[in-house]
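Chapter review: from sequence to fold.
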Amino acid sequence: MDDSAATNMPNIKLETRIEAPLRVVFDLARSIDLHVESTAGTREKAVAGRTTGLIGLGETVTWEATHFGIRQRLTSKIVVFDPPHHFRDTMLSGAFKRLDHDHYFRWDGSQTVMTDQFDYTSPLGILGRVADWLFLERYLRKLLETRNELIRSVAEEGARIDELVAV
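The token string follows.
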């Protein structure tokens, strides 16, 4: 049993299969510009740290977005970086009590398998757990699915890859 199951904390796991090379998918997943595009509905933008291009080991990004009608900021840092197989961003400050997002990539012989492991703890104790159950976990899963679908679309079409993965 993993720690999230033992503590009843949300742990979102998504697997996305993409018909594109491993390195392309890895780089698109760390593109600040593509992330901004995938979160247009929340008007998310990078306002400090790395604000464009590809984020890498030790770099931070501060995001500003509107969620549930409230303008919020979240700063994360890339704390694990093993190209093109894995990177982890960890929240340094923001609305959550804790947040780690692991991004894993593997080639299965015909396509890249991208796996997100999104592990977080909501603030406010029992109220946060109730929010997770009522709507928050579903909301976050949808944000990740939207992001992953855009990564898949761009990677498989190939038309904009050069502009998005330029360092």
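Two observations follow directly from the output. The longest helix spans residues 125-157. The beta strands are 11-18, 45-49, 60-67, 70-82, 86-93, 98-107, 112-121.
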